[in-house]
Amino acid sequence: MSNHLANKQLTARFLTELASAPLDGILAVLTRYCHTDCCWEIFYPFERIDGLANATAQFWGPLKQAFPDYEQRMGVVIAGDYEGREQVSSLGHVMGSFEAPWLTIPPTHNLSFLRFGFNAIVRDGKFAKAYILLDIPDLMRQAGYYPLRRMPGTAEQWPLPPIDSGATLTSVHPERGALTMAIVREMQLALPKPGEARDKKSAAGRHSHHWHENMNWYGPAGIGSMRRLRGFQDFHGALFLQAFPDRSGIARDANGSEDAPGHYTRIGDGLFAVTGGWPSIYATHTGGQWLGLPPSGRKVEMRVADWYRLDRADKIIDNWVMIDVPHILAQMGLDILDDLRFFADPSLSRISD
User: Fold this and answer.
1) Which residues contact 309 (CB under 8 A, 6 or more apart)?
2) What CA–CA distance (Å, rounded) separates 328 from 40?
């Protein structure tokens, strides 16, 4: 009997208890659920944090101070094995009253949503490493400080899975999950390689038959969400291919370090699957239009995770995508959080002493 069901329930309890814990109780929750040397990889600007006390002081504590009544809403929790490690994944959002500045983002003093992904390695019933994925530009948008041009897709909040999709904490389905993952990987491997996408028809190419005709692609702020293959091609695919014509997925060495580039997670559970890399893509920014920015000519790495849902006809109908947009922008020379400091506090001088 695998530990996958127990790991799903462990994740739900952990995130729920963290949300309800008082500020001075966060470290105790982390101690109950995590190994003392647990490593945290968190989207920019947090980066890598080692140890429970540091994670409390640098991430979980400030999050609780900003959202003192926050609730962890989970729409997907799946578990499986990858590279010989027990893994678990959750997707949803933090929701609560935004009451204090966070990352220099001014509070709204109203209900706000922070898209939140959690991918973790479990060892001996505790978390050994965790990846936390956040849509910080979307929170900036809600606070009235959206830093980019109008996004081509919709900015509305991501819907969570429908009630009949099998998203549950009471069961785990590794056999069906393996089929889901096989379909997802066949689609990913058939995506156009550099130089293959000559026009819209060739860009659709070999991967298109895996998608439901009414597929939904939910992207982070800056890109937005869209429906049907035409929407994906027009509002994201074409812009991304133009901006990064040499983009390339990173081949993972299955026998290498857990910290190596490429997919650190790749698990399927029932009709759901997740893949993610830290980074999973290398590219050079030589074209315009993506996020409305002119080409910077810089080489960048991209941290990306995709959660997928298949329908019962084995078509991909939902794809939730977390991209570390602030990290990519920082590599291009634009630090949106540093820039925000001066808008949030006009008394600050942009001329250094």
Assistant:
1) 76, 161, 165, 271, 272, 316, 317, 318, 319
2) 19
Q: What is the DSSP letter of 320?
A: E
Sign of CA dihedral 209, 290, 284, 104: negative
Neighbours of 345 (CB within 10 A): 11
Rounded Cα gap, residues 339 and 147, in angstroms: 9
**CA-closest candidate to residue 339, choices 43, 42, 45:** 45
Q: Look at residues 130, 176, 113 and name the one whose alpha carbon lies nearest to residue 276.
A: 130
Give the integer Cα–Cα distance in Å for 95 and 92: 10
| Average pLDDT over every residue of 202-226 | 87
Q: DSSP string covering 61-84, please? A: HHHHHHSTT-EEEEEEEEEEEETT
pLDDT tens per residue, range 251-301: 998 787 888 999 999 999 999 999 999 999 999 999 988 999 999 999 999
Which residues have C-beta within 8 Å of that of residue 22, sequence separation ≥ 6?
none
Burial of 163 (0-12, 13-18, 19+ CB in 10 A): exposed
- The residue with tokens 């060495």 is 253
Q: Classify residue 225 as left (phi > 0), alpha (psi -120 to 50) or beta.
A: beta
**Exposed, middle or buried by CB within 10 Å (0-12, 13-18, 19+), for 115?**
buried
